[in-house]
């Protein structure tokens, strides 16, 4: 049996050794600062307080930390912007949180049409750098103005445009990654097709920091798409909107197809006043960036599908500003709902035809658990974000909300779906991963983890339940 | 040190045991039939003669073979249609070739817009089954009428449309795979986004049968694209055509962008008489399937780029039949060149801006090695197929051709490229894999191989050089 006993929180000896290996100020142990690295956006109450935070300035710093951590068997939590909604960057008691927030260089290689970004760069900065050269980095997680590109790659983050343009992993051509033992590996490069060797690059995309720490990414850029046209449609029920989504995606591949339910519509309207119809049960938001007249053709198909599913009102616009305002409304839904209480944010996905059934099932869960669940969704690819809200400080309501949180994941699994479409498993959803994957896939996961991180120092508790110390 | 001693070719005992575990006729030892499974399309002279061929009829058969092989430490070569151009399915002396050619069921789930195909299904049959339901399976390796879908997934096969529509892996949503020890694992499913757990599915796509045997695939289908418009352009030099490719891909993303040099043009013209200009040094073939009038706009940009790079003649057509005839000509290039002698088919890729330099370098190698090298290419993504030809039976010419084969791969590596863009490493290119990946990536490859196939029974000699028996 392999030993996996982690050192105790009070590990002054090893931490002092680490401090001596790095530039002054790189290792932070001031409790007031360290406290800021306990939680990520999931605010998982079981998050631990790290013994130290390392703010790496270079790949060499990352290597130093991982060598030291392997030697001393200290848990390491890699962290970009700390915007995980799944507890993927939340602290481990007595461990080290390895922050890449200072590593945020971005450069654009116009000839090869790639961006090369350090892992801590904010995704918006990558998009801006590409745009400055007339190029486009498509992935657009809702958090793109706050999340890091390294975190996006570590979770294989999706977003609004991935229905047509794919997810983060589709744009990762190369990476530099530091393994648990400190080896620095460069994978891939600015080549559009490369099948030489095992798909090692693919193994790290979406591995949530459990197999290595991504320090740099080479990202594919595209010529920018044509200006989009935008459609909104309101419905008398969420199911009707979901039926429309099924009908639309059978015929066309819009550049965006989002859904908000009544609770979300009203929360947004409270926050930013868009004149959304507060009485409708659901709003669909679709975009087409097909070139020229084809965009109107595509929106006509979408409109017809909405009408056939009983839409109350359909509105289209080719005004970019007006369309962008609707997208802004959709992106504001989560922050807007924070006024409703403490939020538990789901990320379940199902095959698109199962969307109406998922929506019905979620309503049943909300009733059974006596809790509020609002549904917003990247509906076009079946990825939904049911949001469970409860009043702060109400322990009973919180308990009911947490039960509902599990119920929704189990429902998605029953419908042939997934517990996470784009946020990752993190510490928050690890207890349900076995239910989705089954024992054999979990065993395979463990075999790969054991091969690459034999002491399980990297992001322990993510994907694989933590084992008691030996 | 782990034992990896394979059993001797004469392994009657174990083979008889295997025969008794499977239905009559499943295990073939008749030397006349077994001989047909020695080579794949790479016709690597070092291919071995298998002791037996198993024609699996079910996943359970595959499981039986792998359990038996693990127990008896017999090498297993998984084989679909045997169309590997890299020796990925060529025989191992005394081993078992596990053929999936009888497992070729294909069904289409219209609601979920997926095809479910057994691994031995021919790729064309997947495309036909999808089309029968008004849907489209995009990947189109040149071999799609002969190659198997399992082999396509095992190599992450590309093709002509992948410049715009991606490679096989982009359409693999789920799979059933049998591990070396016989465990059957189901990964993914008909979900468009799913990040639950390590990206195990991605690890098997492109693993060339070295980590497991894929038995079934769930494949994403799309609505069919608009009818394409086609452009051909002739050039006075291959470099000029390559320059045009660089200029085109800076501005648009065509549905196809292929290149043939003078040798290929003339070989095709000898075979099928298309009235191609035999005197031009290069032909570019581009397609746009942008909807409506946008196709003409896209071809106009492509035409302008060709003219600016000194094209001799540019021709465009919206006649589908005429366009298809040009595509047929391009697809016929490899078979047409078989008249030139014995062929060694390269698959090197470089970043697109390095294409002209690659083309120049290849000409230099042809001169230095006194051999014929013709270049055909999926030019738009930098993936080229230099074809080296030598007269059959001429040992000296063959030796020079084999040296040139290595030279071209080393040139691609020097230019920041890859030794294989879509055919895979196979046994043929394994000696050069270290040159591309470096020691650390090879060590990582070995760690994963050891974790999943500790006795190295699966496709030995592919990606990792065979070790001498213990």
TrEMBL record, chains A, B:
Recorded hits in InterPro entries, A to Z, give: FAD-bd_oxidored_4_C, FAD-bd_PCMH, FAD-bd_PCMH-like_sf, FAD-bd_PCMH_sub2, FAD-linked_Oxase-like_C, FAD-linked_OxidoTrans_Type4, Oxid_FAD_bind_N, Vanillyl_alc_oxidase_C-sub2
Q: Name one GO molecular function term.
A: oxidoreductase activity
Domain of life the protein comes from: Bacteria
One Pfam match, given by its short name, reads FAD_binding_4
Mind telling me which SUPFAM superfamilies this protein's record contains? FAD-binding/transporter-associated domain-like, FAD-linked oxidases, C-terminal domain
Which co-factor is required? FAD
Q: Keyword Cell membrane on this protein?
A: no
Q: Which PROSITE patterns match?
A: FAD_PCMH
Domain FAD-binding PCMH-type, by residue range, is 46-224
Keyword terms of this UniProt record: FAD, Flavoprotein, Oxidoreductase
Similarity comment text for this entry: Belongs to the FAD-binding oxidoreductase/transferase type 4 family.
| Name under which the protein is recorded | FAD-linked oxidase
Q: In which organism is this protein found?
A: Acrocarpospora macrocephala
Q: Lineage in the entry?
A: Bacteria, Bacillati, Actinomycetota, Actinomycetes, Streptosporangiales
């Amino acid at each position: 049996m392999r030993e996996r006993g982690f050192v105790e929180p009070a590990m002054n000896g090893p931490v002092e050794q680490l401090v001596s290996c790095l530039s002054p100020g790189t290792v932070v142990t001031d409790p007031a600062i360290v406290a800021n690295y306990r939680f990520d956006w999931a605010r998982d109450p079981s998050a631990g307080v790290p013994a130290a935070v390392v703010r790496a300035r270079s790949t060499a710093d990352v290597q130093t930390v991982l060598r030291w951590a392997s030697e001393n068997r200290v848990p390491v939590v890699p962290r970009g912007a700390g915007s995980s909604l799944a507890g993927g960057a939340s602290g481990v008691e007595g461990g080290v949180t390895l922050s890449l927030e200072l590593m945020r260089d971005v450069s654009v290689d116009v000839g090869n049409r790639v961006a090369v970004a350090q892992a801590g760069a904010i995704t918006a900065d990558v998009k801006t750098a590409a745009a400055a050269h007339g190029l486009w980095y498509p992935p657009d997680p809702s958090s793109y103005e706050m999340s890091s590109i390294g975190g996006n790659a570590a979770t294989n983050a999706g977003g609004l445009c991935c229905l047509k343009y794919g997810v983060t992993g589709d744009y990762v051509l190369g990476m530099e990654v530091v393994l648990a033992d400190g080896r620095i590996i460069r994978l891939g490069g600015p080549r559009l097709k490369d099948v030489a060797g095992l798909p090692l690059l693919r193994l790290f995309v979406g591995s949530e920091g459990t197999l290595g720490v991504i320090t740099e990414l080479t990202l594919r850029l595209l010529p920018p798409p044509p200006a989009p046209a935008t459609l909104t449609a309101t419905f008398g029920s969420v199911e009707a909107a979901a039926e429309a989504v099924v009908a639309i995606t059978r015929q066309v591949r819009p550049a965006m197809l989002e859904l908000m339910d009544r609770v979300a519509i009203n929360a947004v309207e409270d926050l930013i006043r868009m004149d959304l119809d507060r009485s409708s049960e659901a709003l669909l938001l679709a975009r087409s960036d097909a070139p020229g007249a084809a965009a109107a053709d595509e929106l006509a198909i979408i409109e017809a599908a909405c009408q056939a599913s009983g839409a109350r009102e359909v509105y289209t616009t080719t005004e970019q500003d007006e369309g962008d305002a609707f997208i802004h409304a959709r992106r504001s839904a989560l922050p807007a709902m924070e006024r409703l209480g403490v939020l538990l944010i789901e990320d379940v996905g199902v095959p698109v035809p199962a969307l109406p059934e998922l929506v019905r099932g979620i309503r049943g869960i909300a009733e059974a658990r006596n809790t509020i669940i609002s549904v917003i969704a990247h509906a076009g690819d079946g990825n939904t974000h049911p949001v469970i809200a409860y009043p702060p400080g109400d322990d009973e309501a919180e308990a009911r909300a947490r039960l509902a949180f599990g119920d929704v994941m189990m429902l998605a699994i029953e419908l042939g779906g997934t517990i996470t479409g784009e946020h990752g498993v993190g510490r928050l959803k690890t207890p349900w991963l076995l239910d989705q994957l089954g024992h054999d896939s979990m065993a395979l996961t463990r075999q790969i983890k054991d091969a690459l991180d034999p002491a399980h120092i990297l992001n322990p508790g993510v994907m694989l339940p933590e084992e008691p110390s030996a």
